[in-house]
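Try it yourself: sequence plus aspartic acid, in.
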Amino acid sequence: MKKIIVFATLGCASLWVHAQAYPNKPVTIVVPFAAGGPTDRSARDLAEALRKPLGGVVSILVDNAAGAGGSVGASKVAKAAPDGYTLLMHHISMATMPSLFRVLPFKVESDFEYLGMVSDVPMTLIGRPTLPAKNFKELQTWIGQNHGKINLGNAGVGSASHLCGLLFQNAVQVDMTTVPYRGTAPAMTDLIGGQIDLMCDQTTNTSSQIEAKKVVGYAVTTAKPLTTAALRDLPTLQAAGLKGFEVSVWQGLYAPKGTPPEILTKLNTALRAALKDPEFIKKQEGLGAVVYTDNRLDPVEHKKFVIAEIAKWSPIIKAAGVYAD
Ligand code: ASP
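Structure, out:
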């Protein structure tokens, strides 16, 4: 009995020492989509901004664990050692996956520690550069004339681009053939090359391509028009006649369940500092994202928000009758 108590005490002491020294080796942020896409871009900018507040000595790496609409990467982090060295950057999928997947190898509510939310990224509806439609009105006509022939790219069932594409198909009452990729970076390459017709994606991936005229921007998915240079001329889908259409991609940071509280506190403090980093804010805002400053930086509020979003999206996804098996 005595021995057990001694071991238990030693165990706690070693965890405490670990937390004190944290971080003393590279920290990895898992991105559940391909490199070069919007989630990856935000995570890489965040990794840079986190380095200084985490002591400025260790590297913050990004690991692209793409697949199955973002569930592969989330699952990897849910199963990782809860030591603060493996984190997850994920988005609105944390709230849609529980309804979209009949079987999910982790529980969003109980297999993660919530570290705080990062930013909100509007989406845009974009098309291949060779599409004859030059604006949303013309696109509606073109869609009407091409039933059964339209390819819509996305980052896999469960991704934000999938959700947005699904809502769009429902709104225009046209079924399109969806083409899944490991992220919207490779989908963007195919859209520019004309292999697919349309895509819904975050402004952090689409702004520069719209500006360079490599793709056609048709509309934004927010309730209000956007003000960044590349996007300010695009109508909202609501103003273009799709009543109630609104989707925006919030992003947050997570750690595996059981990460020591001292490490969670260090990570949350570092995240709060990173989100005030003028360089990080400038990069994100330049691409249309809004960096959070509100109470969702608080882990408790972050978790509450995700749980509310699960409840919000569940009936919408169920009504659409789509599942990722
Ligand atoms: N934009 C993607 C999505 O649809 C993810 C990515 O490639 O970052 O969820």
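One thing you can check immediately is this: The two ends are 49 Å apart (CA to CA).
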